[in-house]
Amino acid sequence: MNRCSISFSDCCFRLVSHRSILGFVANDLPLFCLRRRSLSLGHSIVGSTDARPFPDYSPKKPTIRDSEFVYQISTALKLRRSEPLRRILKPFESNFRTDHLIWVLMNIKNDYKLVLDFFYWACLRREPTLEARCIVIQIAVASKDLKVAHGLFCDFWAKPNLDLCLSYSHFVERLIYTYKDWGSDPYVFDIFFQVLVEAGMFNEAGKLFDKLLNYGLAISVDSCNLFLTRLAINSDGIEMAIKFFNEYPEGGVCWNTTSHNIIIHSLCLLRKIREAHNLLLQMELRGCIPDVVSYSTVICGYCDVGEHQKMLKLIEEMQIKGLKPNSYTYNSIIVLLCNTDNVVEAEKVFREMVNQGILPDKVVYTTLLSGFCNFGNVPAARRLFDEMQARKIDPDNVTFTAIIHGLCRTGKIVEAVELFHEMVSRGLEPDEVTYTALIDGYCKAGEMKEAFALHNQMVQRQLTPNVITYTALADGLCKRGELDTANELLHEMSGKGLQLNICTYNSIVNGLCKAGNLVQAVNLIKEMELAGFHPDTITFTTLMDTYCKMGEMTKAHEVLREMLDRGLQPTVVTFNVLMNGFCMTGMLEDGERLLKWMLQKGIMPNATTYNSLMKQYCIRNNMPATTKIYRSMGTQGVMPDSNTYNILIKGHCKARNMKEAWFLHREMVEKGFDIAVSSYNALIRGFYKRKKFMEARELFEEMRTQGLAAERDIYNIFLDMNFEEGNMEITLELCDEAIEKCLVDKAHNEKI
């Protein structure tokens, strides 16, 4: 991403989620409706002279005997309404029939409470007819009791073994038949439409929509919005939602901003971002003003497909229109920046979000700290972790797992274990992902005993190790040369019904290569193909890496050629392997040519690509060439990582450019990167040789504060310095520390 000031960001990996769309509907009702008839006011269509009239209600006529019975019930209900209904109606219960219900309702229809009580009493005796149910629904809507009306609809559709098609036809027929004389409130059809939509009966809802147009009525905007939303939630219904939206404005339907937002989101789900953007541009022409949600949804879509420039242009348009970004906008850009390794820029956007008064939630914090962990900047992730807790935002399993994974990736297994125990002490249950991250960390550190102990604990907690768990264990065993044990583990995997996948094979191939068993690795690749697993980019990149480290660049080229012949696309990691090979064998000109070719082909290098070249130029003490590459890195928008800084610091110290080395050290600290022990040693030696004793002492104390051990000659420098200054207490303390760090630890490591 270009280094420009982003004044906000929005809509994350939840983007304009389904939950968000429902929120739009809830907050922005009503919406739109209608089709090819003229404009609608409320529910009636203006100028619809050809509309079909609703039928007159003409129920079955009661006999004289029934009329007398109905009169007695109606009179008793009206005169004795203060008494319990069951007591009033007890004398009539034995002779009461379903037909009597409608006739009584005709006499008491102006007393809504009485209607409802009597209807429920009748329902306890026998199932009411569909006509009676529709009559009570009409009365409830006319009395503005929409909750009861909705419930009466739902009760009917919740019945078991209901023939939906037949029931729908009968229900619509009865609802239309009872409409004119029992309520005449068109919102009754809206509620019915909503119930159909909620039940997932989208075809029936569409039929109802069309049928009502023939009667000169239109479903209200809020109900149609609900229809669009429910269709958009279902992946199979997105196209139907878009078709419905495009078809019905022909008759004069004015979709509002919310309607457009739903369809824009639907188009983005289909990755039709340009169509979504075009709809955004058309909104004002259609009389709708785009809001922050409209822009945020399209911004989010462009973020998903990585079109940074269009995203930035939309952000500028938002600013011009005076629209303030919301949390979704910020989240979206933060996710994009993290996914493209621009984590430092992501934090700038995050800080601006906070400055604008928009409080980040757990998801935003987790996204950003995961980005730092993936980038190798765990201290920055820990800082965010502490910050979110200071804001009273409790980290969850995902947050803890992200940092544990980051610590394990950077070899900080002790800190990872401490955090794991803290997670458990807070009552959070680690899942398979958490355990696997920690097991992988132990395996990478070569601590296989601890890895298997954690595996056993995982099983005891009734968590099932997956293919990734076993792959990590197999990889750790292979790296230690315990190939037979790794094979046994794979057999155990198969015995548990877990299928080996390409990742498992790649892990073992990598382990064999690391152990120097290249022939076995090649043979395993052949076995892998016989088992139906075709080598992928990672497989070939692993082989290339081994050949490059052996200095056999010709064979590495052959592997690359075979990879291309198979139609596999090399990744930036593949090219980094090749770059490292060129640099290690002294072929720096070839390395620079490779970098130039990558840029020409649109393959974006990362920090590792540049680091390989800079490291070799530093070794040759060619700092002008190193600086040139570093500047080129910045021009391409590639952010330096901790290795970049450590390489440059040691290079400048070696060339005695202490001012530049000191500046890089300060910048590195500000960005939260870890400074390598070798960089501290180089800086201290450089300043000491230049007689910059204050700077050397400051760095030495900084190093000790972090628990890092300096090399023996560095300890000797400060032992002599403090002795000459008469600081005997510090001298003795340093002496003990030097013995412990340089002698005891060294002997222990050699023993291991």
Strand order of the largest sheet: 1-2
Task: Outline the biggest β-sheet.
Answer: 2 strands, antiparallel
Radius of gyration equals 37 Å
Shape: elongated
CATH topology of the domain at 34-219: Serine Threonine Protein Phosphatase 5, Tetratricopeptide repeat
Instruction: Give the name of the CATH architecture of the domain at 34-219.
Output: Alpha Horseshoe
Secondary structure: number of strands = 2
Average per-residue pLDDT, rounded, comes to: 82
Strand content: under 5%
- Poorly predicted ranges: 1-42, 744-752
Head-to-tail CA distance between termini: 46 Å
> How many alpha or pi helices?
40
Helicity level: 55-70%
Q: What is the CATH class designation of the domain at 34-219?
A: Mainly Alpha
Structural class: mainly alpha
